[in-house]
Structure formats: C-alpha cells, structure tokens
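Protocol step 4 of 6: record predicted structures for both targets in the notebook before any analysis. Target 1:
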Amino acid sequence: MAGTRAAIRYAKAVLSLASDNKQAEAVQADMTLIGQTIANNASLEDALKSPVVKLSEKANVLNALFPSVSSESKSLFNILVSNKRVNILGQVATQYGILYDQVNNKAHAFVTTAVPMTPELEVKVMAKLKTLTTKEVTLNKTVDENILGGFILRVGDQQYDASVSNQLNTLKSKFTIN
C-alpha cells in the first residue's frame, strides 16, 4: 500500500511527541475518531486524496470536522498539509493505533462464532486467549453461520480454529486420503 512507510514514520513521531507531553491516550482517541471518520466517509477520503482540492481547503475541512482534537493531532494536520501528505492521514491514524497498542502491551483478538456468543463460550475463548498471549486483549466478535459451530480465534498472527466446519474438513481429508 502506497504511503504506508511514511504513515508509520508520521505515527511514530506523533506517538513520541504525545508520549513526551503525556497525551498519548488522548491522541489515541483522536486517531480512532479520525480513522473511523475517514473510513466511513468516502467523500472525505476522496477530498483528502484529490489533487484538485487546495491544501488550504483540506486543512480547513479537517479543522472544521475535528475542532476538539488535541494540539498534537492538530499539529499532525498542519505537518501533513505543509508536506503535501494529507492524503495519508487515515493510514497515519491506523498506524498510530497499532503502535500505541504495542507500547501499551495491548492486542486485538477476533473471534468468529456461528451464533452470538454465550457467556460460557466467552469464558472458554478468554481462557484460550490467555494461552496465546500475555497482552491485555480487546475481543472483537463476529457471527458467521458458515462455521456451523464452535469458534475461530485470531490474535496477532496466531489462529486457533475450534469450528465444527474445520473438524468436518479434517475428517473429510482423512477419509479421502486413505
């Protein structure tokens, strides 16, 4: 993805500045808001990436949309505008979130179930998470009826597949090989 390396550099710089000013958590909230706003608004993303829209207009739009963000976030807007890199703001916000989580020993786990999770299943999933990572985990839940039952758990680059469909596929492969 074009601009990812630059986005990481800007995110590191903002995180460093925010940490020095003891504002890392506030900037994390800002970056979450900014990232979600850009991701959910295609016309905003198009305007930020458009070479036709003047840089000053892009800066005005960002300041109007996000009037209550921290001074570090506003500085990021100004730097991106002055460096003509405002088109990567969404990527910077995403990278900031990733770096912030790494620094604070946090991780996001994704669990997919066939039906909405019951409290008993959530206890099982959280127990399995403790074996996969020592980080503080935020659990993101999705429902996919195609897995038939059980759950699929992903945290970082690890995946634990305890779904019925996986077990059926394993049985199927055993029967077709022999």
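Target 2:
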Amino acid sequence: MTSLSNATIIAQTTQWIKSVVIGCNFCPFAAKAMAQKSIRYVVLPDTTLENSLETLVEELRFLDRSIDIETTLLIFPNQYADFEEYLDLVDLAEALSEEQGYEGVYQIASFHPEYCFDGADNDDPANYTNRSPYPMLHLLREDSVSKVLEHYIDPEGIPERNIAFAQEKGLKHMRSLLGACFY
C-alpha cells in the first residue's frame, strides 16, 4: 500500500504518459491531450469497489459538463493490485457505463502494472503497451478518438504496431521505461 501523496502519484502517471504512451507513440491521441492540458487525474487512494464505480459515473457526468477536458484517468494506487480483480472492475465499469447510457459516448481503456494480454507470457514486452504505474481506468471521448483516427494512417494497425515496437525494444527496455516513472 502506497502512502505517496496524490501529487506524486499524478506526477508519476504524467511521466508515464510522456515517456511511455507518447514516447513510444502507443496512442495518437495522448500528445494533443497532454499539450492542451486536457487530461484530468482522479486519484482514489482508499476506495471500495462500490465507490470506484460511483466515481466512474461521477466522472462520466463531469466529462458531459466539461468539454475542455478530453479524458479522465481514474487512478487506484492502493487497490486492484491483483490483475484478475482489476479485470473484474473493468468488466463492471464497462457494463455500468453502458447501463448509464454512455455506450458510444465514452470508452474505457484499461491500464495496470501487471497487465498481461490473454494468452501472452507475463514477460512478453508487448504487455507494456498497457502497463502503467498504477491500476487505472482511462475514460476517453469517443468522438475525439474518432476524429483523431480519421487522420491517422491505418488506425486498425495501431495495436499490432505497438506490440511490434515493444517486442523490438525488448523486456529490459520496456521495464526500464516504466520503472523510470517512479522517483
């Protein structure tokens, strides 16, 4: 359990976005949102599953009202360390988002320190395309993502290019990039 301040957790997460997500070009959306300072960080240091889901709905409603914010990261520094438990949260979050009428409005991307693609070896560097300093849910505006992808060559190939990049760089490099976010 981390006792770091919210400011430190946000700084580490911001460093991860800069050095891994943007630095490795994993997401064509991230650089613009970072430059425009339109990323909202919500740290939930001590939360329950119920509170996590309530906060998710609150953030979806917040995004409805706040057009200057492109995306929200819900960060759970002390919960959901177990990847399977985290995946249960993701499933519940997606179902709740749909139930609340947000299907097609927002999408939820999942990032976790122990992220492992189904069927992949835990030490596959490709897992680092979705590994983050802390468990988090990333709420993205569907229309913004669609607009960015309209101008992106072969958007369907993004996951494969990310995987190929991570595997080419290797486990040591990808582990080092993520590890450098902690100071």
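Step 5 preliminary note on target 2. The chain has one domain: 6-179. Strands lie at 39-43, 71-75, 106-111, 136-141.
Proceed to step 6 after PI sign-off.
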